[in-house]
Amino acid sequence: MLWGGRSPRNLKIVWKPIKSTTRRQSFVLGKFRVLEKSALAKLRKSTGYSFSKCKEALEKHSNDCKQAEQWLRAEAQTHGWEKATKLHGRTTAQGLISVLTDSGNAVMVETNCEADFVSRNKKFVSCVSILLV
């Protein structure tokens, strides 16, 4: 008896998907773990990193927020996630101002950069002209 005395129609009920619970569940290294939503929300709020990275950090460190945050900071340094925040305070005193007029309408674009030689670069000027159009 191939189907154990049951018809294939009755077997479809066995393969019915199970509804998900309110907690996020994962299977890591042969152990069943449950991610706490509050820990995930707390980690996302304190670090500002993506949901998937915070989830990965919590899975690796068994819902320990402090260890997960340290791991995220180390990953950010190796992958350069924080480079933009380091450059945030720099002044951009050089740049170009471009104006485009057409039948009574005008558009003005100010594009800033850190150094004067960058503002004279052909690629920078072409980028500004593309933005203008």
Automatic annotation (TrEMBL):
Localization: Mitochondrion
Any GO MF annotation of the entry? translation elongation factor activity
Kindly state which keywords UniProt assigns to this record, in alphabetical order. Elongation factor, Mitochondrion, Protein biosynthesis
Note whether tRNA processing occurs among the keywords: no
GO aspect biological process, one term: mitochondrial translational elongation
CDD domains registered for this protein in UniProt: UBA_EF-Ts
Q: Per the similarity annotation, which family is this?
A: Belongs to the EF-Ts family.
- This one is known as Elongation factor Ts, mitochondrial
Q: Which organism is it from?
A: Allacma fusca
